[in-house]
Amino acid sequence: MDHYQALYRETARYVNKVIRRKAITTKMIQRWVEDAKRIKQTKGTVGLVSHYKRLYKQVLTEQEIERLKHSARKTELSFRLIDVLVEEKVLTAIQAKWAKQYVTRSS
What we know:
This protein has helices at about 5-20, 25-60, 60-70, 75-85, 95-105. By secondary structure, the protein is mainly α.
């Protein structure tokens, strides 16, 4: 997991810069990936998606979500984090492809 720290740090800094407040930390992202493993095992993919839809709305306002959707590095960083979920065996390659298509369409 340590080899992902640079990506988590980069992502947290970027999100906080875009939304103009410190809402996300490296530790939060690390915990979310660990939680994703557990949730996927206990509640499946649908449970995982449902959990994270609620989670980001707890951390970010609708206005902040919109800022992120239209930010310059949204796709790049999202794709890299999705790749981590594949490496950590949270998502399959097919599920990652669908997630990346969703990210691309949600601009």
